[in-house]
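User: Predict structure, ligand pantoate.
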Amino acid sequence: VPDVVETIAGLRARLRATPQSTVALVPTMGALHDGHLALVDRARELADIVVVSIFVNPLQFGRGEDLDRYPRTLDADLATLGRADLVFAPSATEMYPDGASQTRVIAGPVAALFEGASRPGHFDGVLTVVAKLFGIVQPQFAVFGQKDAQQLFLVRRMVTDLNLPVVVEAVPIVREADGLALSSRNRFLGEQEKRAALTLSRALRSLATSGDLATARAVVASEESVGLDYLEIVSPSTFLPVGDDHGGEALAIVAAKVGSTRLIDNEAIHLG
Ligand code: PAF
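Assistant: Predicted complex:
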């Protein structure tokens, strides 16, 4: 079991003890699954010291979202983190002593689309806490999952735009054998909902083979318990929808509500 540090001063003291070591940070909100552990494994390859942060960041949840319901499973999380060196698990007041940080990062225009369209302010909250974690841990590497593709895009943009001295590494989505992308929110799904949730990966597969949005959207529409939010093809370099004439690499992204649980997924595709 890794050492758990709850304060910024405590974490800094621990890291100061080995000043020559390189550090990789894996930012998480806990409720860890094999997708997170793949991030930890990648971090292990990159640096001498692996720090996993576990913090359910209130700033990135809107009113009426699932902040209170978000799973908090610290003991179980720690039991899975044998390959990490340090866990940083601060309280909300440790991170936001004044109730919320005074200064915030404002994400670029892409933050208003897709996830941001249903979750206003979400990405400002994500980038603010990620920037704080970068400042606190000062890692050489930070490892994020491809599952949150828009988040990954915006974190990379922040690092570029603000010249932050950290290398962002992405790790592919980990899926169940049936194709369902692992997510901390999957635990909210009943058996039937879990089956319905397979529609997301199926729609992405359909897009990968046909490149046709209408056909793939029909795949989702055929499952009545799934409420589609968006299914789009975006450019990996701009995260904006591609035109009909786009050829080459692209990213198919999807979000839908299954019962009361909102799920997202994505897949790199090639348009011929
Ligand atoms: O992806 C997440 O779990 C969160 O958005 C992150 C990056 C830990 C920031 O709170």
